[in-house]
């Protein structure tokens, strides 16, 4: 009989645990399961939590100062200064050629908006500020939406529903569920408003690297994708478009990063880093 090449490996000289049994049960049924290196140790989770505290502080500092009339380069400086003053490193800075410390995505910019002096916030804008912190080699990643002054009811609803999608996705993330369960829950909620859930970008494992496995898609079918087990750390970060789910790369961006909604209608996104526990996910960033 041909042997099966297993993703999940048992620890040499150790007894089989309940975790081993549950993961092997699903692997035997042909499901995609994590490799053992995706399971963070308690010490690693504590390190990611510490990075998360600083990451939350960065976004709190932005919240104190963000307003109409400021440009996004000023937001970048706030983020860089707070992060480095607390002994951490902005993960985005120089990551694969990205030139700044934070992503600032205004209105129809879905994600990866590059801070610029000429991008001045105006009354009614909505903006996503996305920051990732490295502290002592550990990564934490989160983003928030900000409404500048008073905006339209349509944009207010989009921002609110995008946050609800994150919360609903987190609620669907149970131990020994699948990535597709998260995406299914998010997509069902967005569909109630005829919003598009971006498919070309996704959440991801995080903690020891900026981007790890698994990819956390925000659409899909229940019972599909990788099995999620206690000790895994990942982001959920649905990008919700007011219109089509499709996107395109801004041809005028010389760095090749900025992503625009396909019909150039507004987009909104919220993101947290989570650790899976025996009882559900715990938020490591706010």
From TrEMBL:
Residues 46-278 form the Peptidase M24 domain. Binds 2 divalent metal cations per subunit. Has a high-affinity and a low affinity metal-binding site. The true nature of the physiological cofactor is under debate. The enzyme is active with cobalt, zinc, manganese or divalent iron ions. Most likely, methionine aminopeptidases function as mononuclear Fe(2+)-metalloproteases under physiological conditions, and the catalytically relevant metal-binding site has been assigned to the histidine-containing high-affinity site. One of its GO terms (molecular function) is initiator methionyl aminopeptidase activity. It is an enzyme of class 3 (hydrolase). It comes from the Bacteria. It catalyses: Release of N-terminal amino acids, preferentially methionine, from peptides and arylamides. A divalent metal cation 1 binds at residues 130, 141, 271. InterPro entries: Pept_M24 (IPR000994), Pept_M24A_MAP1 (IPR002467). Belongs to the peptidase M24A family. Methionine aminopeptidase type 1 subfamily. Monomer. This is Methionine aminopeptidase. It comes from Hoylesella nanceiensis. The lineage of its organism: Bacteria, Pseudomonadati, Bacteroidota, Bacteroidia, Bacteroidales.
């Amino acid at each position: 009989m041909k042997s099966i090449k297993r993703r999940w490996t048992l620890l040499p000289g150790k007894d089989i645990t309940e975790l081993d049994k549950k993961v092997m049960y699903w692997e035997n049924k042909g499901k995609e399961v994590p490799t053992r290196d995706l399971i963070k140790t308690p010490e690693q989770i504590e390190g990611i939590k510490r990075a998360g505290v600083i990451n939350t502080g960065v976004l709190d500092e932005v919240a104190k100062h963000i307003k109409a009339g400021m440009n996004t380069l000023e937001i970048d400086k706030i983020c860089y200064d707070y992060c480095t003053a607390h002994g951490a490193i902005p993960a985005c800075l120089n990551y694969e050629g990205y030139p700044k410390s934070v992503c600032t995505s205004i209105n129809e910019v879905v994600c990866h908006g590059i801070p610029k002096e000429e991008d001045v916030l105006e009354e009614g804008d909505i903006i996503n500020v996305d920051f990732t912190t490295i502290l002592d080699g550990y990564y934490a990643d989160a983003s928030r939406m900000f409404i500048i002054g008073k905006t339209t009811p349509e944009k207010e609803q989009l921002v609110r529903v995008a946050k609800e999608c994150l919360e609903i996705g987190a609620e669907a993330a149970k131990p020994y569920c699948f990535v597709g369960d998260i995406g299914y829950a998010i997509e069902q909620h967005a569909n109630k408003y005829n919003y598009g859930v971006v498919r070309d970008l996704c959440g991801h494992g995080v903690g020891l690297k900026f981007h790890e496995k698994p990819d956390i898609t925000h659409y899909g079918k229940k019972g599909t994708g990788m099995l999620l087990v206690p000790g895994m750390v990942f982001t959920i970060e649905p990008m919700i478009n007011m219109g089509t789910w499709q996107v395109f790369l801004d041809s005028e961006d010389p760095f090749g990063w900025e992503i625009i909604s396909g019909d150039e209608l507004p987009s909104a996104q919220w993101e947290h880093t989570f650790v899976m526990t025996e009882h559900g996910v715990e938020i490591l960033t706010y």
